[in-house]
Design brief:
38% of the residues are buried. Helix 7 crosses helix 12 and helix 8 crosses helix 9. This protein has two domains: 179 residues, 3-Layer(aba) Sandwich (Aminopeptidase), CATH 3.40.630; 189 residues, Aminopeptidase (3-Layer(aba) Sandwich), CATH 3.40.630.30. It is built from 13 helices and 15 strands. By secondary structure, it is an alpha+beta fold.
Length: 384
Amino acid sequence: MNDLTIKQVESDGELRAFINFPWRVYKDDPNWVPPLRLQIKEKLNRKKNPFFEHAEMALFLARRGKEVVGRIAAIIDFNHNEYHQEKVVFFGLYESLNDEQVARLLLETVIDWGKKRGMEILRGPVNLSMNDECAFLLEGFDSPPTIMMPYNPPYYIELMEKCGLTKAKDLYAYFMDRNHATEQQVKEVVEKIRQATSFQMRTANLRKIQEETKKIAYIYNQAWAKNWGFVPWTDNEMKFMGKSLKALADPDLVIFAMHRGQEVGFAFGLPNYNEIIKSLNGNLFPFGIFKFMLNRKKITGMRALVFGVLPRYQRIGLSYLLYDELETRAKAKGYQWAETSWQLEDNEAINRFTASIGGRIYKKYRIYEKRFIPLNQGEKNESL
């Protein structure tokens, strides 16, 4: 008897079940980093998260009998669709048991939800947008994810492909340690650039975090405007992010490049808080916060989250200066390694740059998609 059902999350109890389900999927996985429940609740809160000023979302739970066996979010980011002139319904926050029937039901539900809203493409996972965690881990299951990077069981890849989804784009994460082979070569390049240019570096002022995040957003929105999947940050999203950064950011790892008194580039490194979060089992209170504060200075790695350079200052070596400044500061603070992520597989300029500074690809991620016919074009339903 097939008693598999799916229902949209509506009650507080269903939301708790949605948030708690991953603990079942990953109960025996030593590399999983349990997310902080309070953080997930805030992300999903339509009143608090400014993402929902330009997006619509529905959460769904799959059950076999009374037992939860999967979950998924259906998301329409209107800013993304307008910017790229696409009709995409994203799926995100995907988790399921290793069950093809469950996977099909979850994905079909998002397609049906998207069809009713005139969408034509299923794409994901994104959690909740391309500016958040996104993609499934494809290679590199032998170590935990860094902060704000995804993780999943290997069988998710097989489930997606059995359900007819195909690759949309692969993303890369690069690893660097303190003594990489190209260190001396990079120093020589940096010195030549310094002699030929007149850039200055400054540390971000977290006491003026909202002003600083506006500058980051301005540079980021111009620097990445032509990239696949890019969606501009809104002012309110930057304010929302600024609040988080004030609590988490290491100001020595947030660097602005200055030219004639103006910010023209930035480098953003974030301590790998996953090294601490892993032991909290999703709970910051009542005791997790003390463990977090006591151990944050013991973090060994950092994630080079993003670099941004205004278009007119690109291709003159400023990225090398920013990287060198970030690396020098990170080493001085005792960080032993760094991950640079994520990078598009076909962004050849950035990938060559990262390889030239000693990075090696150690994890790969994949975003999937599937095209379908929306209901307003006469299609009643379609199975995966």
